[in-house]
Amino acid sequence: MACLIGIDIGTTNCKAAAYTEDGMFKAVASRPTVTHYLENNWAEFDPGQIWDAVQDILRDITRQLGGEKIDGIAVASMGAAGVLLNENDEWIHRSIAWFDTRTEGIAAEWREDFGSEEVFSISGFVPNPMAGITKVQWIRRQKPELFKGVKRWVSMQDYIVYRLTGEAVVDLSVACRTMAVDLKERCWSDKILDHAQIPREICSTIKRSGELAGTVTSHSAGLTGVEAGTPVFAGGMDYVCGAFACGLTQSGQVLSAIGTSEQVLMVVDEPANDVKHIDTNFTCVNYVVDDKYYIAGQVISSGVILDWFRTEMTKEDLTTLLDEAEKSPLGAKGAILLPHFRGKYAPGADPLSKGALIGLTTSHTRGDLARAIIEGLCYESTTIIEGIQKIVDYEIETVNVVGGATKSPFWMQIKADILGKPVVCLNVPEAVTLGAAMLAGLGAGIYKDPEDAVRQTRRDDTVYLPDSVRHEAYRTMFENVYENVYPALQGIHHKIDALIKKEEK
């Protein structure tokens, strides 16, 4: 049996798992990803801590494998969290987190100076503060002298690949999250890089997912326990690898990956970067197999809101909160959550939007509020799914779901009832690491093609069908209340942000 390792550099944890070719676990290890929070909710990752965590989990994996030969490794990672390295391979600034919106001013400059339509037509991106190139520009402005000595600009994926192999290689699905890739030509855009004053030579070599990036060096072998010469293949964006592991290889298939954020994507054959869609802020970028693309939006704050409510507000365990939420009536007695705790991404970007719980009375219990949180998250993802439907101009039939939320039948039934569509919960315990391992298997020749990889690793699933009566009730609340909450609060939230910035000065 083959042995394939997928590594997932995530916002919450760094994980690695070893699999057989039929997708069965051989070993698994995890370490927390440390997020350093600064003023005004800025957030950063220490690249050294990330690399230390990867060394730890690989040593753990190799101990569990007991010297077994590893046929291939691939790395999946969060997007937009870039690392700038000098000639000594030392980082010059901590990596700015993908959800950090400090670069909104730089994104605005792109929209005004270069032109939103031009950026969108090249990269599939509407300029926004999550684009990796804005993070690099921010660091350059803060540390101009150090930036002159930058040898490499790597995303978190290629940073780990570089540490393992000495080769700076990034796959298209991660590279395109920088906003600096030509979507159709599948290469770095000289036009965008030149405007940003970023030398092309510091960018990683772009390869398709599953292509050989390099082999583990003797130095890294000593640090990780992985045998020198082990092949490392280009992986992909974390939730996009997860989509592949869930069987998404055909156009029209949709996945909702619920974790810290909720990522929603649809696989398509051609990029949907017509400027008529620009105001939606949906991205249409490169997928990990068969040179396909995907349309994506996200609820920036998803599981993190429940975690915040649990730790900061209730000091209660999640199981208890979900049990109490299930006892609350449909609609949570009129309590409504707007889940923009880290801003709004799509449809229509608004990084200054904020979270809100409205409709509260003294009759509300914490169970009502927990239900309102879940319903609010499902409402918000519905706006994304329906927004994608408008772009592709056909009805999405089924939504596949992965992530921790799938462990709650209550949550998934609400999702189906609000969407009015079947929700298929896929039994893929570690979708991201499995997807990365499958890409390594493609590169190593273990699988004939992506469909063969999916066939060999496919798991059982659980289907939640929408209840027509509950869907009608939710639809009434969605159209009459929820869709009006953000427009009603938008101006207030912008004023709050301005006041906060004024006080900080």
Automatic annotation (TrEMBL):
<feature type="domain" description="Carbohydrate kinase FGGY N-terminal">
    <location>
        <begin position="4"/>
        <end position="244"/>
    </location>
</feature>
<protein>
    <submittedName>
        <fullName>Xylulose kinase</fullName>
    </submittedName>
</protein>
<dbReference type="InterPro" id="IPR018483">
    <property type="entry name" value="Carb_kinase_FGGY_CS"/>
</dbReference>
<dbReference type="InterPro" id="IPR000577">
    <property type="entry name" value="Carb_kinase_FGGY"/>
</dbReference>
<dbReference type="InterPro" id="IPR018484">
    <property type="entry name" value="FGGY_N"/>
</dbReference>
<dbReference type="InterPro" id="IPR043129">
    <property type="entry name" value="ATPase_NBD"/>
</dbReference>
<keyword id="KW-0808">Transferase</keyword>
<keyword id="KW-0418">Kinase</keyword>
<comment type="similarity">
    <text>Belongs to the FGGY kinase family.</text>
</comment>
<dbReference type="Pfam" id="PF02782">
    <property type="entry name" value="FGGY_C"/>
</dbReference>
<dbReference type="Pfam" id="PF00370">
    <property type="entry name" value="FGGY_N"/>
</dbReference>
<dbReference type="InterPro" id="IPR018485">
    <property type="entry name" value="FGGY_C"/>
</dbReference>
<dbReference type="InterPro" id="IPR050406">
    <property type="entry name" value="FGGY_Carb_Kinase"/>
</dbReference>
<feature type="domain" description="Carbohydrate kinase FGGY C-terminal">
    <location>
        <begin position="257"/>
        <end position="442"/>
    </location>
</feature>
<dbReference type="GO" id="GO:0016301">
    <property type="term" value="F:kinase activity"/>
</dbReference>
